[in-house]
């Protein structure tokens, strides 16, 4: 059973018990308020953190990987900065995954072609990536995913299977949309925070502290600082005998629909 459903049953049962008990003994309304508050916190936590697998199952790493293998992913592109990222990846002969925003694919078809010709994985990261994505109803989420799938298919000739929700936030509408589109949700277990903090040293240290077999690193190809960090990171991985593998290989999943 989905965690969201199980949690709802659990808290509804407590509230029902409180309601029934209040018929026989005096129970302060404050108890019900506390129960509802705790429920709200649990839902908030589950919706915010993709690795909690609260609304949907998300692949955030390969916990069974024992060899020093790791995958690198980039969100929010393609953008002019992506070409700088591609130069570094090419220099170190590394294949990464790019979770693209549909609107950006429309703006930068030449970069999409470059991603394809250099054999990187292309995945879906919604069409607009709007701050309101988490308030969209099921059908609008489906439309966002299908629009981006169609754009990627136009250049690649096949549909992406991987989807990363904007901000890593999930909810019941997204879950219901995914039941229709059948995308596999890809999360991460190393968040670089490169989209928020503009300090290369901080980002680099934050990543290398968390590196372990089977990990998935989240970075942004839209950020200039990431270019420098990426080169440092690839040197670190090389020195420590880590192999950067494509994410479909790390997770044993198919990146595209046939
Ligand atoms: Zn994003």
UniProtKB/TrEMBL annotation:
Please list the GO terms describing molecular function: hydrolase activity, acting on carbon-nitrogen (but not peptide) bonds
**Cross-referenced Pfam families:** Polysacc_deac_1
According to the entry, every stretch annotated as the NodB homology domain falls at 68-245
- Alphabetically ordered keywords of this record: Membrane, Transmembrane, Transmembrane helix
- Keyword check for Transmembrane helix: yes
Per the record, the GO terms for biological process are: carbohydrate metabolic process
- Where is the chain membrane-spanning? 7-25, 31-51
Report the domain of life of the source organism: Bacteria
Tagged with keyword Transmembrane helix: yes
Which InterPro entries does the entry link to?
Answer: Glyco_hydro/deAcase_b/a-brl, NODB_dom, Polysacc_deacetylase_ArnD
Protein name in UniProt: Polysaccharide deacetylase family protein
